[in-house]
Amino acid sequence: MSVPPVPGTSFFPVSREEMEARGWAGLDFLLISGDAYVDHPSFGPAVIARVLESRGFRVGILPQPDWRSREPFLAMGRPRLAALVTAGNLDSMLNRLTASKKSRSRDSYSPGGKAGLRPDRATIVYGSRVRECWKDIPLIIGGVEASLRRFAHYDYWSDEVRRSVLVDSGADLLVYGMGEKQIAGIAALLDRGVPVEKIRSVRGTMYRSSAYPEDGKTVEVPSWEEVSSDRKKFAEAFRLQYPEQDPFHGKAVAQRFGTVWAIQNPPPRPLTMDEMDEIYGYPYTRTYHPMYEKDGGVPAIEEVRFSLTSHRGCFGSCSFCAIHYHQGRIIQARSHGSLVEEARLLTTLPDFKGYIHDVGGPTANFRIPACDEQLVRGACRGRQCLFPSPCPKLRADHSDYLELLGKLRALAGVKKVFIRSGIRFDYLMADKKTPFLEELCAHHVSGQLKVAPEHVSPAVLSVMGKPGCEVYGKFMEAYAEVNRKLGKKQYLVPYFISSHPGADLKDAVRLAEYLRDIRFQPEQVQDFIPTPGSLSTCIYYTGMDPFSGKKVHVPKDRNERKMQRALLQYREPKNRETVIRALKAAGRSDLVGEGPRCLVREQHKETRRGKESSSAGRSAQKMRAGKPTASPRPGDSRKAPSRGPGRSPSEGRRPG
Question: pTM score > 0.70 for this model?
């Protein structure tokens, strides 16, 4: 379906012809992206380009160029100030390969969903092409891939520790985090004639140097040579640099790669509400470039076309998630006025049907900072806001979010306002001041609510940094009771992770028994993928908690991972033999047989069991307030795409 642009807006040029149509003889910045060009505030290249445009610079976008040739990179000419490179909305390796290292058949960020239009390790490949074209041009990299691979990091797909992408790409600067402040500051300096090698003090950037800074403030972490050969050194490097990712107390961090130092400046200050409003108020066309019309458009726009990003940041700090490492732990919110104005704009679009699909962020119900002190001295070192239990100073209050949702519901032309980006249920349960759950169920659930308990084993949840299963149990009961009073049939769709560090077969069996008891079988199971930058990935590679030094069981063996996954879907006939093997290995043969608590039956009952399990599997997919009912459609894992030089997921976002 064709998606028309917002009237009065225009796309950035993607070719020499479009440059000339604007009367441009040349560009100030060439922005090279691994994604198709979508001019929407949830897509990084669009935001970075609009920031530069607002400051008077001429920007051209080169989306998904053929990396096998120099010609596409040369087509729009040498930019006056710099080339900007991003791999796209996701890490390029995660974008292409699954947890089992098989190629994905679809890429939502490419025209028509076609896979294979970007290279592996796209930041490095694009950077190398830029250097072949112009050896002396300032090269600046950013985006999720660059941000999460900024230090020496474990790469799951090659099963090795790789160097910083800053070093391997040949870039002059690396922008980490969301990027708007950084790129604006860098552009101003370049435009004043400051050589890129002299730009060393912009917060939220990394640079290369032949010398270690002798300022007495920089934190040195073990070198790439050390961390690539010694897992304890890898854990030590993570332990040292992790606390410095705070905009208030974070120090510079340096890591050596042979004769070169990669030096990270402290993170940028959080954006003010006015700055957030400015970014989301730029004149986006809010659709994909018309050159993709012949391919049927770009699928990723569908999820965010009628959604609103209300804030950034996440103080949940789940071990397996790198959002807080990229966006930060301090919430940065937009004003009600800005969001209401954007919602009014949505109501004027010809294909708007009256439904706002989402109002949220990395976690939908985090609209305010965790506590007042975060805005003065930053997030606490050595402790989390919600784990292992909510901090006494936590502001568990949904008043602002409720007020915002009420204003959006009241707009002319708006029929429903849904929340689909995930609710952090432990934060919701900690709120004793507002009727948020009642309002949520009454107005903002589109038949099903996605939540992420992730596991039930206390040992595994502790490694994950998630609350105990009893919290989810209380939430299920509360959700059921509210919906009963409202007379609504609304369902919970919980997400679980298999094979996370800390989980052994006994833990997986415990989760399977829990699913049996609540009569729920996940239609989708997410195998843990060790993506760069997260605490869980550090544990996966080293086999230890970097902060305590304690050993942690890591399910790396392919057969163990297969068994853990199968246990979560034990009703599936195709998983029967694997489940039996897993139960025997875990010493739980008592769960094989005819009893009511057994997970699978004996071999001679397989024919009848196969028929029964197929029927049960279809009927137990959804939970109506903790009870089974009809099957749900497969859920997407997260909502908003992530950003180019300096933007995060919302990328592949799981529920909070």
Answer: yes
